[in-house]
Amino acid sequence: MNKLALLFAYMRTLRLRNRFRTREELAAWQGRKVRAFLLKVRSQSRYYRSRYDGLAVEDWEQWPVMSKTEFMDGFDDLNTVGISKNEAYELAVKAEMTRDFSSKIGAVTVGLSSGTSGHRGIFLVSDRERAAWAGTIMAKVLPDPIYKKQRIAFFLRANSNLYETVQSRLLQFHYLDLLDPIEQHIARLQELQPTVLVAPPSMLRLLAEAMNRGELRLQPKKVISIAEVLEPLDEQYIRHAFQSVIHQVYQCTEGFLASTCTHGTLHINEDVLVIQPEYIDEERRRFLPIITDFSRASQPVIRYRLNDILTFREEPCPCGSLFKAIETIEGRMDDLFYGIHREDGQQRIPVFPDFIRRAILLSSEAVMEYRVSQLSPMELEVAVKLESGNNAAAEARVRQELTDVFRLHGCLPPDVHFTTYRLDAGPTKLRRIKREYGTAGAEDAPSG
Fold it and tell me: Which NCBIfam families match (predicted)?
């Protein structure tokens, strides 16, 4: 590990927090960074050299947008470290099977995304980028300065050299495999007593329940949610159990996108990347992010459209940061529900996940956990876990709220049936709102 690169990234991140006085000043700095980055990448990547041939870097904000399919199809020519997709995939799958995540190809770390969108992604990170990532994330998420000792418990589906980079005498990193039994995790955490706890919301929920039962006693300085959408219902439950603000790190194959400040506000990491919004509902500030990461050249991410539905925060954060803030991560476009227009019986009308989420939460204060799946435009499957009360009455209220949502959108009310709720924390990401049929393509896209 390049410790000097790590320390430089750490200090640089702290310095940039207060460098910019206005959004215009920040945008100008980002523009300079992006243009220099694009000139470098275009000379090193055969894919980008061909894709953006003849286009002026000054107009980069209007360059063609890339999809995940294009990104993975062009893998061999796109990356600048000479690694083939087959070679990378073979190593990543072997690591998944053996649970040994220490292998690299030369000086490059290879990882595999969890594939919640249905398409598993491969990421490449050089040793220098790995050190820079570690320094950046330490500056943004550690509760104390770098010279203070920390014990970090990190729950992941798969470990990686990327995460092991933060291991040092002062930073004790403890990887916990999501495939292991929850009882084993409880015993290990009780012994470790981590100062920082990092896990998906589904695992944090199980740990919070163990704490409420008196089976686990933890007092971490910081609790960080990763990998899954942190639903308001889960956030409230976990926060109450830990008596702490629940922080978030928003990271994916395509980059370290956002992290929370001391107030718990999720700010875009505009010191390492640019996110351009592609609005799908501008009035409600909903958009798909188009990412250009100017900090990572081994596998460049340029004008890449991510399939997540985000909402900008309107109010300025009390922390004073100029970096844009995200109000909510609603889910993926694949989780967008569709209803059938009640007038013509043909047109598909989109229903955003937030409407489904609100319908469940408004139905009853006794709702502790839930899952809603759309099996077809006319069929919803709902699983609800209640704190107490009449199940039949709660189900009737849930059915009514969901019916009202579809009617509000001018759609025929779907058939709503119920099933037993069960939460399995493990390698598969929790998605409380999920469309089970089709994709948001020709079949399911709204018309008119």
Answer: aden_form_hyp (TIGR02304)
Handedness of CA 346, 350, 355, 357 (dihedral sign): positive
Q: Are 289 and 283 spatial neighbours (Cβ–Cβ below 8 Å)? A: no
249 strand-pairing partners: 259
Q: Superfamily for 3-333?
A: ANL, N-terminal domain (3.40.50.12780)
Which class is domain 336-435? Answer: alpha beta
Contacts of 25 (CB under 8 A, 6+ apart): none
Q: Compute the chain's Rg from CA coordinates.
A: 22
What are the sequence ranges of the domains in the chain?
3-333, 336-435
Give the pair of three-digit tokens for residue 381.
């499957």
- Span of 41-50, 151-160, 302-311 with lowest mean pLDDT: 151-160
Summarize pLDDT for 352-381 with one digit per residue, the tens: 787 888 888 778 777 888 899 999 999 999
CA distance 417 to 414: 10
Q: Is the pLDDT confidence value at 118 over 80?
A: no
* β-strands 325-332, 266-268 pairing: antiparallel
Cα pseudo-dihedral 8, 14, 20, 23, rounded to 10: 100
Q: 361: burial class by Cβ within 10 Å (0-12, 13-18, 19+)?
A: middle
- Paired residues of 197 in beta bridges: 153, 223
**Which residue do the tokens 């994916």 mark?**
252
Residue 424 burial (CB < 10 Å; 0-12/13-18/19+)?
Answer: exposed
pLDDT digits (tens, 9 = 90+) for 251-260: 887 789 999 9
Per-residue pLDDT tens over the stretch 305-331: 998 889 999 999 999 999 999 998 887
Do 421 and 369 touch, CB atoms closer than 8 A?
Answer: yes
Ramachandran region, residue 10 (left: φ > 0; alpha: ψ -120 to 50; beta: rest)? alpha
Distances (CA, A) of 244 to 32, 86, 151, 163, 264: 39, 44, 17, 24, 10
Helix, strand, or coil (residue 389)? coil
In the DSSP assignment, the letter for residue 420 is -
Give, rounded to a whole angstrom, the gap between the first and last alpha carbons of the chain. 55
